[in-house]
Amino acid sequence: MDLDDRSRVHWRGGGSDFWPDDRGWRRRLVIALMLVGLLASLGLHVAIGWADALGALTFAQRLVGVLFLLAGVVEGIALPAVVDHWGRRQVRLSGALVLLGVLMTLATTSLLLFLWLQEREYIATVLIFLGLWLWSLWALHALIRDKVWRGIPHPRKFALGVTVTALMTAVSLGYSILYQPIAAPMHFVLRAEFGTPRTDSGSPYVHVPLVLYAKNDGGIPVYIVIDDYTVTGSLAKFSGSGDGLKEWKGDQEGGWWNPEAEAYRSDVTYEVVASGQFQGPGSTLDAGEEFKMEKVITLPKSTKYETLNADLQFAILRQDRGKIDDEFYNPKLSWIKSEGRYYCPPDECGEHVIYHGRVRYNTNLINVTRKPRYVAAFWAPEEAPDVFISSFNFKKEKKNQSIYGIYQGLDEGEVSREAERYGLVWASVNSEVSVRGLLKQAR
């Protein structure tokens, strides 16, 4: 109805723009607090949802990002509704819109605080979550005191719609964060095969082809965090007494032992013949994709090696659980002083190629409730490659440490937990051939 139509409405002491017994400063304070809280909540929803809506790997994860962006839109619509509800109330649903925005803030901040409590790591953003959570409780109390549901045409349907939306969001979150990464299997086909050697009568060398092959035969694309192929030659003495089986216990004082033993082989030693990287750290292997590399190993015809062993191994990280930032792809050389915080004197740390960068979880909800996580990988031609994920960030006060010193300063529980969360696992294959048999095949 037209409140200014004097034939229908009679005002005593003022008109439609006058609030009887109005405490204007209190209304303006409530409006200001409501606007600040909704603006902060809008920014939080957009910050969480934007990265997932545009860059998430799976449809479910992108859907979660879109839901957060839509929640941000609702928060934006609620901003003018605040001014109207505590103003002239020209829109009947203004109170309901504000109530919806406050309920979304309460639900989101409650979820964020719940996720934060799982780790209880100190981060500055937890103060924002806690502040918005307390604000939403105050705002909800103020709206209930005003009985804003009286302006809703069908309050039960409104409540049902809010409940269904919250349940759909919870199901989507649970599916994308928990179920899907666990249920999706991984499977790889790996091969390391020696080919037919080639030589000529005037050459003292034999060229042995080596074919390395990997195929992602599962349904999940992965990152290859670090990879390595190593060819070793074995030397051994003949044990006519058959005492070779007793040597499996190795060094008793050092706790070393050998999982293999042969009765007529003794004092087995291995020498690295060739070593290198396969596809390369930071590369990807999508579902159904394969990668093949051929190398030529050079041996002297007079070699004393009994066997050649080829090992292909790489550490993989599931893309449906995490994403590696671009900075990881740039290798750092530990023996060069210009590398800054990655430099370590070779006589103390050895010489390693280091790959280091930020790794993020598959949903931004987890990223904003945790300290940053980093993946670090180390490669050297005569050492086994190594990799770990943790909050360690090569701070300056921890420079001049070898990989072993770094590991001593890490929380083993954190390293194991992060590896499981991101699906960081190793895949490997081994192949062994007789050197004499290769030399007989040489063309």
Give a nutshell description of this structure.
The chain has 443 residues and is α+β, with helices and mostly antiparallel strands. The chain has 3 domains: 24-183, no CATH class; 185-318 and 427-443, Sandwich (Immunoglobulin-like), CATH 2.60.40.10; 322-422, no CATH class. The chain has 10 helices and 13 strands.
Task: Describe the model.
- By secondary structure, the chain is α+β, with helices and mostly antiparallel strands.
- It has 3 domains: 24-183, no CATH class; 185-318 and 427-443, Immunoglobulins (Immunoglobulin-like, Sandwich); 322-422, no CATH class.
- The chain contains 10 helices and 13 strands.
- It has helices at 24-55, 59-85, 94-119, 125-146, 155-183, 346-349, 364-367, 403-408, 412-422, 435-441, and strands at 188-194, 205-216, 222-238, 265-276, 283-285, 290-300, 307-318, 322-324, 332-333, 353-361, 373-380, 383-390, 425-434.
- The strands form 3 sheets. Strands 3, 4, 5, 7 and 13 form a 5-stranded antiparallel β-sheet that branches. Strands 8, 9, 10, 11 and 12 form a 5-stranded antiparallel β-sheet that branches.
- Strand 11 (373-380) and strand 12 form a beta hairpin.
- Helix 1 packs across helix 4 and helix 2 crosses helix 3 (94-119).
- The longest helix has 32 residues, at 24-55.
- The termini are far apart.
